Amino acid sequence: AKGKVMKGHQSHQMRRGDVLTPTDAALLESPLDFLSQDHLRERQVCSLLDSLATSLSFDPPAARNVLRFVNEELSVHMQDDAEDLFPLLSRRCTAEDGIGRAIARISTDLEEAARLLPELRAALARCLDTGSELSTEDRRVFTLFAGHVRRHLAAENAIVLPIARARLTRRDLKELSSHMRSRRGLEPLTEASDAG
User: Fold this and answer.
1) Cα–Cα distances in Å, from 5 out to 14, 18, 43, 114, 163?
2) What is the model's pTM?
3) How many other β-carbons are positioned within 10 Å of the β-carbon of residue 5?
């Protein structure tokens, strides 16, 4: 039945909706798949932010999930894009791909989201610490932040990842995977797992 999780074979995508867990590090072997799954998680976090911004009463568990995500995962994902994926694409793409415009648009949204992060963190922490409600300004910041993240996700999913799948070489993907693993404090993959 729709909405039920099959026993035994529970796909990563089916678990994605819980928002409680980081993207499975095993997917880093296939870095573009990892990024795609990470985007599903970001989308769910945006939904939590929307809910927090529009709810009549503050939801501490949702706030903790969002705060954990922005403190532990978001900046790492932004680094994956800015320091590895985008430079690799810039080197591999042709002018016809128009990747420069897409990257510029995404970078603008990521910069705006990053600019709002201190206010977002402070509001979540304040309400969690004091039990107070969100202010009108807090709600505005949450909505703006979620909007910038959603625009980045839309452009990255529709333009960047498909072009990356077409243009990046096996060596590029290995480099991307290695840098993403290192950024998360994980050991590099052994040569045996790179065979094939």
Assistant:
1) 7, 12, 20, 35, 32
2) 0.84
3) 11
> What spatial distance separates the first Cα and last Cα of the chain, rounded to whole Å?
38
Distance CA 25, CA 133 (A): 35
- CA distances 76 to 1, 69, 79, 87, 186, Å, are 36, 10, 5, 16, 13
Listed residue (115, 129, 171, 140) closest to 52, CA to CA: 140
In angstroms, what CA-CA distances link 106 with 26, 37, 159?
26, 18, 10
Q: What's the rounded Cα separation, in Å, for the pair 196 and 18? A: 34
**Neighbour tally for 121: CB within 10 Å:** 14
Contact 144, 116 (CB under 8 A): yes
Rounded to 5°, angle at Cα 30 from 26 and 35: 90
The string of pLDDT tens digits covering residues 121-167 is: 999 999 999 999 999 999 999 999 999 999 999 999 999 999 999 99
